[in-house]
């Protein structure tokens, strides 16, 4: 496949990235095309759509998956499911699929047209292989079953003390960081209330601790 663009995000590592797109709707990112595809004609009509599908690569995975089963974090990391019954990043072909909200297109930049999106679950520097519009009549199935996901509603932590970072991040960045932290970035098998975690975000290290459903942001 040919890389057509690169995704840019506040997340410079896998740690802390939302497990699915749309879970942190205030999280902003942008798409910069590679030189052969910096053509405004290829985006003609795109602003008429509210959402886009991104097809991309799990580029941070160092080893190709070899097992037919994986352990979904949503199930606590202890239950094995078939890889094709999950959205695990560890797949025979390390291809990701994300639905993101189209915020705006910046048409005239030194890098050609730049697409700004919200709610993405991609790491900074992720290669993008294709972009397709989200079409309601074909893509929306509100009555569909979602397997084990239906039995595991998304839980969010209460985030405290995030205002100590207001001199480091803009209000929009703080909102996005709050959304990401509320999703509990920790590995699901770790639950030590005294452990301090560090998460790179927007060029800074964010430290926090989690106890009794409360995530407390700590001074750097």
From TrEMBL:
Question: Any idea where the TsaA-like domain is?
Answer: 1-143
Q: Which UniProt keywords apply?
A: S-adenosyl-L-methionine
Record bears the keyword Nuclease: no
Keyword field contains Cell membrane: no
- Where are the coiled-coil regions? none
Please give the SUPFAM superfamilies that the UniProt record associates with this protein. YaeB-like
Tell me the protein family, please: Belongs to the tRNA methyltransferase O family.
Name recorded for this polypeptide: tRNA (N6-threonylcarbamoyladenosine(37)-N6)-methyltransferase TrmO
Species whose genome carries this gene? Prevotella sp. GTC17260
